[in-house]
Amino acid sequence: MTLQLVQVNFKARDDSALGQFWAEALGWGVSSEGPGVTNLEPVGFDWPDPSAVCIDLVRVPDPETVKYRVHIELATTSDAHQAELVARLKELGATPVDVGQGDAPWTVMADPEGNVFSVLEPRELYRDTGPIAAVVVDCTDPRAMVRFWGEAIDWTVHELTDDRALLRSVKSVGPYLEFRRTPDDEVVWNRVHLDMMSDPVEDQAKEVARLEGLGAIRTDVGQGDVSWVVLADPAGNEFCVLGRG
Question: pTM (2 decimals)?
Answer without folding.
Answer: 0.91
